[in-house]
Amino acid sequence: MSQLMQAEITDCRETAPGIWVTEFMAPSLAQGAVPGQFLHIRCGEGSDPLLRRPISIHSVDRQSGRVKIMFQAVGKGTAWLASRRYGFIDIIGPLGRGFTMFTGEQTGLDCYNPRLVVVGGGIGAAPLYFLLQELARMGCVQQVMVLLGARTANQLLILDAARVLGFNVRVATDDGTTGYRGPVTDLLAEELQRKPDFVFACGPSPMLKPLCDMLRDAGVPGEVSVEERMACGVGACLSCVCRVKDTGGIETYRHVCVDGPVFAAGEVVW
Amino acid sequence: MSQLMQAEITDCRETAPGIWVTEFMAPSLAQGAVPGQFLHIRCGEGSDPLLRRPISIHSVDRQSGRVKIMFQAVGKGTAWLASRRYGFIDIIGPLGRGFTMFTGEQTGLDCYNPRLVVVGGGIGAAPLYFLLQELARMGCVQQVMVLLGARTANQLLILDAARVLGFNVRVATDDGTTGYRGPVTDLLAEELQRKPDFVFACGPSPMLKPLCDMLRDAGVPGEVSVEERMACGVGACLSCVCRVKDTGGIETYRHVCVDGPVFAAGEVVW
Amino acid sequence: MNTEVNLGGIVMKNPVTTASGTFGFGLEYQPYVALQRLGAITVKGTTLKPRLGNPPPRIAETPSGMLNAIGLQNPGVERVAEEIMPRLAGLGVPVIINIAGDTVEDYAQVARRLDGVPGVAGLEVNISCPNVKKGGIQFGSDPHTAAEVTRAVKAATGLPVIVKLSPNVTDLVAMAEAVARAGADALSMINTLLGMAIDVDRRRPVLGNITGGLSGPAVRPVAVRAVWQVHRALPFTPILGMGGIMTARDALEFILAGATAVAVGTGNFVNPLATVDVVGGIEQYMSNHGFTNISELVGLAQRYTGDN
Amino acid sequence: MNTEVNLGGIVMKNPVTTASGTFGFGLEYQPYVALQRLGAITVKGTTLKPRLGNPPPRIAETPSGMLNAIGLQNPGVERVAEEIMPRLAGLGVPVIINIAGDTVEDYAQVARRLDGVPGVAGLEVNISCPNVKKGGIQFGSDPHTAAEVTRAVKAATGLPVIVKLSPNVTDLVAMAEAVARAGADALSMINTLLGMAIDVDRRRPVLGNITGGLSGPAVRPVAVRAVWQVHRALPFTPILGMGGIMTARDALEFILAGATAVAVGTGNFVNPLATVDVVGGIEQYMSNHGFTNISELVGLAQRYTGDN
Ligand SMILES: Cc1cc2nc3c(=O)[nH]c(=O)nc-3n(C[C@H](O)[C@H](O)[C@H](O)COP(=O)(O)OP(=O)(O)OC[C@H]3O[C@@H](n4cnc5c(N)ncnc54)[C@H](O)[C@@H]3O)c2cc1C
Ligand SMILES: Cc1cc2nc3c(=O)[nH]c(=O)nc-3n(C[C@H](O)[C@H](O)[C@H](O)COP(=O)(O)OP(=O)(O)OC[C@H]3O[C@@H](n4cnc5c(N)ncnc54)[C@H](O)[C@@H]3O)c2cc1C
Ligand SMILES: Cc1cc2nc3c(=O)[nH]c(=O)nc-3n(C[C@H](O)[C@H](O)[C@H](O)COP(=O)(O)O)c2cc1C
Ligand SMILES: Cc1cc2nc3c(=O)[nH]c(=O)nc-3n(C[C@H](O)[C@H](O)[C@H](O)COP(=O)(O)O)c2cc1C
Ligand code: FES
Ligand code: FES
Predict the structure, then answer these.
(1) Of all atoms in ligand 3, which is nearest to the CA of residue C215?
(2) Is there a catalytic annotation at residue D305?
């Protein structure tokens, strides 16, 4: 159940150039959240910046009740957040629908011992670490291939952490400073040859759009986490729409904050 | 000459409940400023709060180039300022006309070895400490009577500091927790019996208004530092007007930021 | 202490409601807010037929404000009456339904359909939504058509009718007078200011709809002025004031200017507890300053006439 | 890289000037700003006779904005022409004088007096100051009188005439068309939005004048929309855009929406270097994005027509 809370910051550090990880105490989140869900965080004290910022849950430690977010300082809200080293942050969460594998809802993933691919691009890797944590907890490490892409080597996120969990990881960078030189979707194309059972992805639209096309063409089901500007975060303001095709093929809007941020790959109209 | 500068904070502490002293490096101010002048300080990063806040110079150390301001955290601008413990503050200054004794301008104070009274009410004492520093430097300590008023004992400012400089100080509090119980103007009434040569005062309007009347009635010249809301601080926006009577007795507006904040006591129309 | 107000026939136990479109149908905020603490709940703009709304992006943040171009996405009056109202009726809080349409007849039909639906305490007629191309803006900027819509809605319902005014006009008082004469039981103001933002990197408007409505603290001075002017001209017409209210002090600006009740809009997004904080803060203010009835505060700043 | 613009006959080496009333006569900011870096300096509103202005308080801070009710305090056109212009003429920067009046004849007389005064590059006609009771607001909200003022000023001077529009109107485009037809060489927008604030503790308006004009970042979305709409309707009439510009990115929003030049107002109070920062930032943007002439940017966002 989502709550409004003041969570005490226990750590905040820059983990890669411009990428920050903030840790805070939030036992209810650590217990109740599902990978893919997000938090709506107040990033300022006055009225500028005004709106909360949606940030995914990066990892949880159920034991200690600590939760982490990983974010890129891109504008004034995230810059403010990065400047908070102690004290409290004002959070609403957990919000949204996470990856359905963990929500108990019906999913495209209904086979036994499924072979999975997890694809992260840039800061889109942030929520995927929580996903990997859960997959590891379920003992799925062997059946998962993790593909990570970034602009350049020092922007590759969650790589070491994923390997520590025991996952098989392949990487791609735009400038070839490490791994494959080119888009991470090229690596996915190779993986799709092996007909995986399900693909999880999070990243920028220019990565997710072709990715969804590839999944459709390959006939592989999957889920993607998408972004849209949000005001309320709770389904009240109707701002965060994403165009989707419903099962009957009819196009309509769904709301990223309550119907998403995770959508079936085939559902999203790019 | 006034400058726009980024001054490094060297200290910030709460000196009385809700009253802060911030010290920063600003050699040009330490050298060039005159008691009664003020600084126009940016109190925030985004656009809320938007405008700079005028704060008087509290003390200067010409040797080290350090300057102090003393301020009450009353609203969001001053609250922000109080939260800055290190880093830089964005200042314009020194601004305005200080006490004329130090500006080389003509003044009502044209006698030899003048007997002076300095009257401060509440946070109005802040700029008066700089005045006392200068008077002490000029060797005037013996001829000066300092009167300080406050709501209650722990809000009495610059008392110890003034005594350390060797000044004679009398105090008044509204609640009688220390010194005379009642307005500091009652103490001034007593002093005026002794016909001092000049009175310097800074404090809230409800103190300055009767004070100016008392000086007029006693025929004693003096100067008061007044406050008005400011946007530019440099005479460009025409917002900070104070109604004054010019020498011909004609009422007009003067601008607190450039014509003040120090005005001849007889000039101000309350 | 008495904080009860009567907003043109809608009795509210305190003067605080939600601004239409910012609080969904109330239920979205139930996990966070004790809805029973509210004087009323004003829900999303409702039209005759369901609407999908505008293409994204639908919002943009601006300094101390936001632009929105939702485009009146809503499930249509039928579902509101049949599915949503039954869930809201049980809360024991008056529900004000904001209605909109493309034609005068649309408004009347929506009003008629809602007449007698349990739980509906009043209608707020949105003649001022800047995000709907047909109707909407025209109704809100011409006194004659505004009066016509008002008359049609009044004729179609026995419920109290609040007419919501747009600030995007030269003469707000003329608009207020026209709809008051046409029978409006109360006025609400302000709807959003027409604005836009441009994405400098992509060199195109940020919003899918190009222009949108500006709300939030940024617009508060405009809203307070609107309430002040209209209350001065029409002292006996109750006003529901809104625009940038985040705290009780903000709300009190509106009340002192002449608003009988206030609505919190964008503030809910920032602080989901904004409404109840406002309720508590107003009570605190009244007890601190020795006021026993909220009505003593309404328009009190208008009495000030000194020169300084 | 060419950043020169022609604002209805006023040639500016870059598109950046100051908003009238926020930069005094320029000299006040000389200790902080290299004035020669500016495309032009627009000075305080000048009237036929000196004016004392309104009683204090004259300003109030609001979220991301400020209210002002200066009331056109100024030394009168005679002193501006005789004493101030000689000091400004030597700077080598075009000076635009903002003029105001209570009657059409007032405007004409001020314009006539300034004709031929060395250093004066153009006039900005303030038909929209909300803080002067006689005239002012009326001229700015009625297309006919606005056109009349424009014609009178044009007839009285050979200088380029910019007419400054108020956003406090229902139909800004109609105002723009009226003054353009009446001969305005350029339009400037926006003047301040009418607003007010109430001191909740003292239960009275904050400003001595009760209402005032809202400016600063808070109003930027309204200003950008104004420029967008007017440029769309009158693509060949140069626009001086202003309202909440603090940075080059803010200025570029106006230029991309259709402004030929921009003015920094309230931003000067926050950052005295705002104008020169904007000049530098626009140059930086042009070189980053491969633009060689500023004219390529004017109205560029209007070309966008896609659905997303
Ligand atoms: C469900 C969800 C989960 C997210 N998770 C993460 C995460 O784990 N780590 C991370 O770094 N970023 C994440 N983002 C993106 C993050 O919300 C934006 O980077 C952030 O809002 C930018 O705020 P700003 O003030 O720094 O930037 P500004 O550009 O100043 O923001 C201006 C406005 O635009 C909105 N905005 C800007 N970029 C985005 C965006 N990409 N998505 C949605 N709104 C945006 C802001 O919220 C704000 O309202 C997520 C977005 C969504 C929708
Ligand atoms: C020349 C001068 C010197 C001053 N020196 C000092 C000093 O040494 N120490 C000190 O504590 N205070 C001083 N003040 C008062 C100080 O400027 C205000 O307390 C401060 O601006 C309040 O800002 P805020 O954001 O905390 O309050 P808010 O109430 O949020 O401020 C809102 C707006 O009102 C203005 N404002 C509020 N109170 C005052 C005031 N008393 N005078 C002028 N503007 C005001 C603010 O600048 C701001 O624009 C001085 C004022 C002036 C004019
Ligand atoms: C996201 C959003 C949606 C809105 N939808 C409606 C609506 O459907 N009907 C309406 O009359 N006003 C609508 N409004 C306007 C608000 O009810 C209110 O008048 C305005 O936002 C000013 O108040 P605020 O500054 O507190 O938000 C909407 C505002 C926002 C921000
Ligand atoms: C203190 C102040 C004084 C102003 N005086 C004038 C004036 O004399 N004439 C005029 O046309 N506009 C005047 N304006 C309006 C500005 O020129 C400008 O149109 C408005 O402030 C919006 O720009 P900004 O948000 O950048 O300040 C004044 C604005 C302020 C804040
Ligand atoms: S952010 Fe308000 S509905 Fe999604
Ligand atoms: S503050 Fe601008 S003139 Fe004094």
Answers:
(1) 25
(2) no
* CA-based nearest residue to C225, from C300, C304, C172, C297: C172
- Give the nearest ligand 4 atom to D128 CA: 11
Q: Which of C42, C192, C224 to mutate to test the pocket of ligand 3 (most atoms within 8 A of CB)?
A: C192
Place of tokens 């709501």: B151
Distance CA A241, CA A93 (A): 19
Ligand nearest to the CA of C220: 3
Q: What is the pLDDT of residue C130?
A: 57
Q: Give, to the nearest 10 degrees, the angle between helix D248-257 and helix D274-288.
A: 70
Other CB atoms within 10 A of residue C10 CB: 27
| Helix segments in D185-293, DSSP class H | 220-233, 248-257, 267-270, 274-288
Classified as helix, coil or strand, A159 is helix
Check whether the bond before B35 is cis (ω within 30° of 0): no
What ranges in C121-240 are assigned the alpha helix state H?
A: 137-141, 143-156, 172-181, 220-233
Q: How far apart are the CA of D68 and the centre of ligand 6, in A?
A: 12
pLDDT per position as a tens digit, A166-187? 999 999 999 999 999 999 999 9
Amino acid at A270: W
Q: Share the mean pLDDT of chain B.
A: 94
- What fold does the segment set D5-302 form as a domain? TIM Barrel (3.20.20)
A198-240 confidence digits (pLDDT tens): 999 999 999 999 999 999 999 999 999 999 999 999 999 999 9
Is the pLDDT score of A88 beyond 80? yes
Whole-prediction pTM? 0.96
Query: Of D236, D193, D259, D285, whose CA–CA distance to D17 is shortest?
Result: D259
- Measured between alpha carbons, how far is residue B72 from residues B123, B155, B209, D109 in Å? 7, 10, 22, 50
Here the tokens at position C307 are: 């020169």
pLDDT band at C307; cut points 50, 70, 90: very low
Q: Which residue ranges make up each domain of chain D?
A: 5-302
Task: Give A164's pLDDT tier (boundaries 50, 70, 90).
Answer: very high
Q: Is the CB of C164 under 6 A from ligand 3?
A: yes
Torsion over CA: C13, C15, C19, C23 (sign): negative
Task: Order across the sheet with A66-72: list the strands.
Answer: A53-56, A38-41, A88-95, A3-16, A19-25, A66-72, A59-61
User: By mean pLDDT, which of A107-116, B29-38, C13-22 is the weakest?
Assistant: A107-116
d(CA A44, CA A75): 12
